[in-house]
Amino acid sequence: MTARIFPRLLSAFILIIGMQLAAEIPASWTTPVPPFRIAGNLYYVGSQDLAAYLIVTPQGNILINSNLQSSPPQIKKSIEALGFKYSDTKILLISHGHYDHCAGSDEIRRETGAKYEVMAQDVPVVESGGHNDFNYASDKTFSFPATKVDHILHDGDTVSLGGTTLTAHLTAGHTRGTTTWTLDEKENGRTLHVVIVGSPNVNPGYKLVNNKAYPQIAADYRHEFEVLNKLPCDIFLGAHGAYFDLLSKHDRLKNGDKNAFIDPAGYKAYIADREQAFENELKKQSAPKR
Ligand SMILES: [Zn+2]
Question: Rounded to two decimals, what is the model's pTM?
């Protein structure tokens, strides 16, 4: 009896452990942060590390990033805690087509009726639920609900609503359609250039050399750094809070430092650091194998 049950229990146990490993996500991705105003009509509505931004206009609101499949209730709660209506979300944008930034899009699009606008090169990934990803096509952890795109964006396109205009900069490499968003905010009579970095990171396992699924990946990263190095930046933001040290800046803001998110030097240092990391990885992968 025991001899028969034991292998079954063991395989069930292994299955559960395996599922937990596959579903392992950092607590910082789901731990909420009280929503707050960053500058002008720009608000933070994400979690500790998965950033989501709300731009509030008289004609409705723009949401950047829908995050995990489990994130929409957190984002909705944050929007409502600020006194805004979730149903006023008219346009939904993303940083790039990975499940930690776009898995909630299908739900948010259906619930709010927002128009989903995505950079052309990420559209096949988003509409296939991750199955067209150049690196993670067969990785179930990276799959997410396939979501219909309502409007296809191209490099340099603008998205305007109620007097606010965002510009979509194609900064590919991390995904083929990684998008860095820029906009200007007015704060105390001063114009502040906001940059929301899409991702400059080379993930573990990314092939930068002889990548059959994405032959121009290294050239795309180089182009991305060229673009990011040129963008004027006062307020430095990004797809993950860790890029721009969200939590400590938020603490400073709470303690009365109204300029906590103004960090042009931090932006430059971060981009330089990520560019060096990319160049180092490219060099390592280009070295002749012995
Ligand atoms: Zn990513």
Answer: 0.91
